[in-house]
Design brief:
The complex is a heterodimer of chains A (309) and B (252). Chain A has 309 residues and is mainly α. Chain A has one domain (13-306): ABC transporter involved in vitamin B12 uptake, BtuC, CATH 1.10.3470. Chain A has 13 helices and two strands. In chain A, helix 2 (35-61) runs antiparallel to helix 10, helix 3 (69-84) packs across helix 10 and helix 11 (241-254) packs parallel to helix 13. The longest helix of chain A is centred in the N-terminal third of the chain and has 30 residues, at 2-31. By secondary structure, chain B is an alpha/beta fold. Helices cover 35% and strands 25% of the residues of chain B. Chain B has helices at residues 3-7, 50-57, 80-86, 103-109, 121-130, 146-159, 176-191, 203-209, 227-232, 234-241; strands at residues 10-21, 24-35, 39-43, 65-70, 73-74, 88-90, 164-168, 195-199, 212-217, 220-225. The N and C termini of chain B lie far apart (46 Å). The chains are: A mainly alpha (309), B alpha/beta (252).
């Protein structure tokens, strides 16, 4: 009976969440309170959620803390921006961009086959640093620090522009949740809890980690593609190490092991950003302090405070 | 080959296996063989190389030389997941469970099935019931007391349908009652055509459960025989009590 109740409760919460997403644009227009800014927030949250979900897989499920998710997003964003501004039809440029993001994620994942814990964190940061340097210096292709403008944008299309990121985000949320219920997802968690024991019961750790990194690349790449085509512009600053730190802080703050945690993290981060708007330079410091506080006091994220034991 | 005849064959054979760590030879030209349904106890003082031998047989580390044969096939140096797939299960000296997963998930993950199914109790119910874990199936493995965690680890090893299980000090930290109970469980396991190779410091358990005892010291095999033979063996007594020790008075 209790099980049924908690199932019913989650269904109601999930249902209201989807309904809120559906009616929010209408509300924004009706109320008319800073409509431009509020709409921007409304469309950026799902993109943050999708990149947060890419961390749910490799950090939450497989236990590898990565400071390279912005670079994976950047591979997606730059991939589709470079191709689509040269006349490649968008479906193909998106497909190619996601492929590039997957390859990038696999390269990022290679050292985890040997390195663990803090060693991988540093390697992932280096990965993001290398990505940034390439983007800034390979001017012929990436236009360097100026970024690429005039990327075809869906941002101004009334219905698609409003609902596309949320549609994709809900799909990604459903997928990551489903993965967490399957034997594959549980195997990832087994690798997280004890890699040696996972091997000893017949789980192919290398294979499982590779799948996790590929899926993480797909999700981060998708977030990048959506962001690039939303604002019609890609710039190296959107995909640097600071952004990766931001995404990790967001995911850890809400609770990186759970879909609800990532959603909560994205929403809380929007509020924090709003509060800190005038103090751009202390933002990184703030993220660092937040991350420490979370790890010390609520290691499973804010979402764990709402769980009934 | 019929099931009957396969039971008479060698299940696991270790031949001149050697492992060096830098200048230290942890396992030196070690050989042993065991059959189906046999319980072999591996004993020896600390640092004798028992766990290193287990690690090589279960694919966790690779030997410098020598071979491991499993059911007649050379399996030397295969990765651990492959060893497990072939039928070599194991437990660890310092219990290694998936702490944030449930007992059910821990046990069910060792059983092969499709990647996209969820882990179901039905699939592994007999193992969970046999190990008396049914009431703990939904509990997080990390939240269980020590004795139960040992049982979960054994259940997990069993659920992979192994042909041999390497038990690394299965009774460590157990009280005498629990240890006796475990000997009962081990005898029961062997009935289902599984061979057991166990590292054991508790002599009562080693002598009570094993058909044969292999004694290691400083990486080498120094004695092998029935529990009674080993109890009388002077090399074994020396390894445990030191050079020049008197043979202890027979307390029977």
């Amino acid at each position: 009976m209790k099980r049924f109740d908690s199932k019913l409760a989650s269904t109601i919460i999930a249902g209201s969440f989807v309904a809120l997403i559906a009616i929010a644009p209408i509300l924004i227009r009706t109320i008319g309170w800073r409509p431009g800014y509020v709409t921007q927030v409304y469309t950026i949250i799902p993109i943050w959620i999708i990149s947060g979900l890419s961390l749910t897989i490799i950090t939450g499920y497989v236990g590898q803390i990565s400071i390279a998710q912005a670079a994976l997003m950047g591979l997606g964003a730059y991939g589709t921006a470079i191709l689509s501004t040269r006349g490649v039809p968008i479906p193909f440029s998106v497909g190619a961009a996601l492929t590039v993001a997957i390859i990038g994620a696999m390269i990022l994942g290679l050292p985890t086959l040997r390195l663990r814990g803090p060693y991988f964190v540093v390697t992932s940061m280096a990965f993001n640093g290398i990505f940034y340097e390439i983007v800034v210096n390979w001017i012929d292709v990436t236009r360097g620090p100026n970024g690429i403008s005039n990327v075809p944008s869906y941002g101004y299309l009334p219905v698609i522009g409003t609902y596309l990121p949320w549609g994709v985000a809900l799909g990604c949320m459903a997928f990551v949740w489903y993965l967490g219920q399957t034997r594959l997802g549980k195997s990832m968690m087994a690798v997280r809890d004890d890699e040696l024991a996972a091997g000893a019961i017949g789980l192919r750790v290398v294979f499982i980690k590779s799948i996790a990194f590929i899926l993480s690349g797909v999700l981060a790449g998708t977030a990048g593609v959506l962001l690039g085509h939303l604002i019609g512009y890609v710039s190296p600053e959107f995909y640097n190490i600071d952004q990766s730190v931001f995404l990790l802080t967001m995911a850890l703050l809400g609770g990186v092991r759970k879909i609800e945690g990532v959603v909560m993290g994205a929403i809380v981060m929007i509020i924090i950003q709003e509060v800190l708007q005038g103090f751009v330079y202390i933002q990184l410091l703030f993220y660092g302090v937040t991350m420490l506080a979370v790890i010390l006091f609520v290691p499973q994220g804010l979402v764990s405070l709402f769980e009934r034991k | 080959m019929t099931a009957q005849s396969s039971n008479d064959h060698t299940l696991l054979e270790v031949s001149s296996l050697t492992k060096r760590f830098g200048g230290v030879t942890a396992v030196d030209q070690m050989s042993l063989a065991m059959r189906f349904r046999e319980v072999v106890a591996l004993i020896g003082p600390n640092g004798a190389g028992k766990t290193t031998l287990f690690n090589m047989v279960s694919g966790i580390s690779k030997p410098n030389s020598g071979d491991v044969f499993f059911q007649g096939n050379r399996v030397t140096g295969l990765p651990s997941w492959r060893m497990a797939e072939l039928g070599i299960g194991r437990t660890f000296q310092n219990i290694r469970l998936f702490g944030d997963l449930t007992v059910l998930e821990n046990v069910a993950l060792a059983r092969k099935s499709s990647w996209f199914r969820s882990l179901k109790l039905e699939d592994i119910k007999e193992v969970i019931e046999r190990m008396g874990l049914i009431e703990f199936a939904a509990k997080t493995a990390g939240s269980l007391p020590y004795g139960l965690r040992r049982r979960v680890e054994l259940a997990r090893a069993l659920s992979g349908r192994p042909k041999v299980i390497l038990l690394d000090e299965p009774t460590a930290g157990m009280n005498p009652t629990e240890a006796v109970e475990l000997v009962g469980i081990m005898r029961d396991i062997v009935k289902s055509d599984i061979g057991l190779l166990l590292i054991e410091h508790n002599m009562r358990v080693a002598m009570g459960a094993a058909d044969r005892v292999v004694v290691m010291n400083l990486g080498r095999k120094i004695a092998e025989g029935s529990p009674e033979e080993i109890q009388q063996n002077s090399a074994v007594i020396q390894a445990y009590l030191g050079e020049g020790s008197e043979k202890p008075a027979n307390d029977e």
